[in-house]
Specification:
The structure is a single chain. By secondary structure, the protein is α+β, with helices and mostly antiparallel strands. A 5-stranded mixed beta barrel has the order 1-2-3-5-4. Helix 1 runs antiparallel to helix 3 and helix 3 packs antiparallel against helix 4. The longest helix has 19 residues. The protein is rod-shaped and about 75 Å long. It starts with a helix and ends with a helix.
Length: about 150
Protein backbone atom coordinates (compact mmCIF):
# COMPACT_ATOMS: atom_id res chain seq x y z
CA UNK A 1 0.00 0.00 0.00
CA UNK A 2 1.22 3.46 -0.82
CA UNK A 3 1.47 6.14 1.88
CA UNK A 4 -1.26 8.12 0.10
CA UNK A 5 -3.63 5.17 0.37
CA UNK A 6 -2.77 4.63 4.05
CA UNK A 7 -3.54 8.28 4.84
CA UNK A 8 -6.77 8.13 2.81
CA UNK A 9 -8.04 4.95 4.51
CA UNK A 10 -7.09 6.36 7.93
CA UNK A 11 -8.91 9.60 7.16
CA UNK A 12 -12.06 7.83 5.99
CA UNK A 13 -11.98 5.58 9.08
CA UNK A 14 -11.75 8.64 11.35
CA UNK A 15 -14.61 10.35 9.51
CA UNK A 16 -16.77 7.23 9.85
CA UNK A 17 -15.87 7.10 13.55
CA UNK A 18 -17.03 10.71 13.90
CA UNK A 19 -20.35 9.85 12.27
CA UNK A 20 -20.84 6.77 14.45
CA UNK A 21 -19.95 8.44 17.77
CA UNK A 22 -20.44 12.22 17.33
CA UNK A 23 -20.80 13.37 20.94
CA UNK A 24 -17.85 11.76 22.73
CA UNK A 25 -15.33 12.76 20.04
CA UNK A 26 -16.74 16.33 19.86
CA UNK A 27 -15.69 16.66 16.18
CA UNK A 28 -12.01 15.83 16.91
CA UNK A 29 -12.05 12.51 15.03
CA UNK A 30 -13.63 14.26 12.04
CA UNK A 31 -10.98 16.99 12.08
CA UNK A 32 -8.21 14.38 12.27
CA UNK A 33 -9.86 12.51 9.39
CA UNK A 34 -10.07 15.60 7.20
CA UNK A 35 -6.39 16.31 7.94
CA UNK A 36 -5.48 12.76 6.90
CA UNK A 37 -7.47 13.05 3.65
CA UNK A 38 -5.70 16.36 2.89
CA UNK A 39 -2.29 14.73 3.42
CA UNK A 40 -3.42 11.85 1.20
CA UNK A 41 -4.30 14.29 -1.58
CA UNK A 42 -0.97 16.11 -1.27
CA UNK A 43 0.93 12.80 -1.37
CA UNK A 44 -0.96 11.85 -4.49
CA UNK A 45 0.40 15.03 -6.14
CA UNK A 46 3.90 15.23 -4.66
CA UNK A 47 5.98 12.74 -2.69
CA UNK A 48 6.80 13.98 0.82
CA UNK A 49 9.02 12.51 3.53
CA UNK A 50 7.18 10.90 6.49
CA UNK A 51 8.12 13.71 8.92
CA UNK A 52 6.62 16.34 6.60
CA UNK A 53 3.51 14.17 6.15
CA UNK A 54 3.04 13.97 9.90
CA UNK A 55 3.62 17.72 10.37
CA UNK A 56 1.13 18.57 7.60
CA UNK A 57 -1.42 16.23 9.20
CA UNK A 58 -0.84 17.70 12.67
CA UNK A 59 -1.11 21.31 11.47
CA UNK A 60 -4.15 20.79 9.23
CA UNK A 61 -5.92 18.67 11.86
CA UNK A 62 -5.14 21.22 14.56
CA UNK A 63 -6.62 24.01 12.45
CA UNK A 64 -9.76 21.97 11.80
CA UNK A 65 -10.08 21.12 15.51
CA UNK A 66 -9.84 24.82 16.39
CA UNK A 67 -12.38 25.70 13.72
CA UNK A 68 -14.78 22.95 14.82
CA UNK A 69 -14.87 24.26 18.43
CA UNK A 70 -17.53 26.78 17.39
CA UNK A 71 -19.93 23.92 16.66
CA UNK A 72 -19.52 22.18 20.04
CA UNK A 73 -21.65 23.50 22.92
CA UNK A 74 -19.31 24.89 25.55
CA UNK A 75 -21.49 24.13 28.55
CA UNK A 76 -24.91 22.99 29.48
CA UNK A 77 -27.05 25.12 31.68
CA UNK A 78 -27.00 23.71 35.20
CA UNK A 79 -29.45 24.52 37.97
CA UNK A 80 -27.59 26.42 40.66
CA UNK A 81 -27.86 25.20 44.22
CA UNK A 82 -30.47 27.12 46.24
CA UNK A 83 -32.06 28.63 43.14
CA UNK A 84 -35.46 30.13 43.87
CA UNK A 85 -38.65 30.35 41.84
CA UNK A 86 -42.19 31.56 42.51
CA UNK A 87 -45.25 29.40 41.88
CA UNK A 88 -47.65 30.80 39.29
CA UNK A 89 -50.30 28.16 39.94
CA UNK A 90 -51.01 25.87 42.84
CA UNK A 91 -49.00 22.66 42.77
CA UNK A 92 -51.26 19.90 44.08
CA UNK A 93 -49.81 16.77 45.74
CA UNK A 94 -48.42 14.44 43.09
CA UNK A 95 -49.35 16.81 40.25
CA UNK A 96 -47.55 19.44 38.23
CA UNK A 97 -48.08 23.18 38.28
CA UNK A 98 -46.27 26.25 36.90
CA UNK A 99 -43.46 28.32 38.40
CA UNK A 100 -41.69 31.46 37.25
CA UNK A 101 -37.97 30.70 37.10
CA UNK A 102 -35.40 33.12 35.66
CA UNK A 103 -38.11 35.10 33.88
CA UNK A 104 -39.79 32.11 32.22
CA UNK A 105 -42.74 29.92 33.09
CA UNK A 106 -41.76 26.30 33.79
CA UNK A 107 -43.73 23.16 34.51
CA UNK A 108 -42.91 22.11 38.08
CA UNK A 109 -43.73 19.43 40.58
CA UNK A 110 -43.02 19.12 44.27
CA UNK A 111 -40.31 16.72 45.42
CA UNK A 112 -42.59 15.49 48.21
CA UNK A 113 -45.64 13.93 46.56
CA UNK A 114 -47.76 14.64 49.66
CA UNK A 115 -47.11 18.39 49.84
CA UNK A 116 -49.32 21.02 48.23
CA UNK A 117 -47.79 24.39 47.32
CA UNK A 118 -50.09 27.41 46.94
CA UNK A 119 -49.75 29.97 44.16
CA UNK A 120 -47.34 32.89 44.66
CA UNK A 121 -45.18 30.83 47.06
CA UNK A 122 -41.37 31.00 46.94
CA UNK A 123 -39.85 27.59 46.24
CA UNK A 124 -36.35 26.16 45.93
CA UNK A 125 -35.48 24.55 42.62
CA UNK A 126 -33.82 21.25 43.44
CA UNK A 127 -33.18 19.93 39.95
CA UNK A 128 -34.44 19.77 36.40
CA UNK A 129 -35.94 16.59 34.94
CA UNK A 130 -36.39 17.15 31.23
CA UNK A 131 -38.58 20.25 30.98
CA UNK A 132 -39.94 19.94 34.52
CA UNK A 133 -38.42 21.58 37.58
CA UNK A 134 -38.50 19.65 40.85
CA UNK A 135 -39.14 22.10 43.69
CA UNK A 136 -39.74 22.31 47.44
CA UNK A 137 -41.52 25.15 49.26
CA UNK A 138 -39.08 27.51 50.94
CA UNK A 139 -41.28 27.80 54.05
CA UNK A 140 -41.48 24.00 54.42
CA UNK A 141 -37.70 23.60 54.19
CA UNK A 142 -37.25 26.48 56.63
CA UNK A 143 -39.56 24.80 59.16
CA UNK A 144 -37.49 21.62 58.90
CA UNK A 145 -34.26 23.47 59.62
CA UNK A 146 -35.84 25.24 62.61
CA UNK A 147 -36.90 21.93 64.18
Amino acid sequence: MTPSLVWFISGIALLVLELMVPLPTMLVAGALGIGAVIVSGLLWLIPLPPLVQFLLWAVSSGLFVLYSRRFVPTHQRQIKEDDEAVTLTEILPGQAGRVKYEGSSWKARCEDLKVSIPAHETVYVLRKQGTTLVVMPKAWLKSLSDS
